[in-house]
Amino acid sequence: xxxxxxxxxxxxxxxxxxSEELMHAVEEKSDNYFIAIxxxxxxxxxxxxxxxxxxxxxIAWKKIHFFWCDERCVPPxxxxxxxxxxxxxxxxxxxxxxxxxxxxxGESEPRTEVIRYANEIEHSLPFDNNNLPQFxxxxxxxxxxGHTASLFPGKNFLFLYSNIxxxxxHPASGQKRISLxxxxxxxxxxxTFMVTGREKAKILSEIIKELPSSKNYPAAEIxxxxxxxxxxxxxxxxxxx
Length: 241
Hints:
Rossmann fold; six-stranded parallel sheet; four-stranded antiparallel sheet; 7 helices; 20% strand; globular
């Protein structure tokens, strides 16, 4: 495993660097490029960057297939929808075919949607020797409690309905969510965590330094089986590093 930590002055610099790297990664691959994205403030900064020059017209959008690491069980027009945020800030501005956008149907019954979403992934992505679908790139964030995607501390991650996705429940609000499993996240060719803000600095430090306490945080458990792991953080999140 190759773990790479990069510290930036502000979130916008992370977004620009990621946009450049995505553009080059898509160029280098001859066929479809499969990516899973997350919600939250930092990915939203990335979406806005991608929707502007030089990336709006410089990326081969027709090659990219977008999936989601997780989604809240809300309709796509809801302000909490991860798809809705990406659609509002990115997809409305770039030339991407509708069939390349593989959203989680947050408005559907969760257990039924887990099965449908898992089937869509199975029929879209290549499988590797682990008999798991393999994304080219997964972009993750980290919550103030160390959760990532919808894998929350103390919840044994997910009550699974498949080995690809499952139904989770937010420990405070009780809101149901649908999330990719730890196994699928770890099976990606590349995993990048985008972490910003001083409120996440202590937990980030524990994870990067691999302290015993980091075992309490799901984000620390996402380690690629054979791929590349990147932590791209701003100086506020890196305060204790």
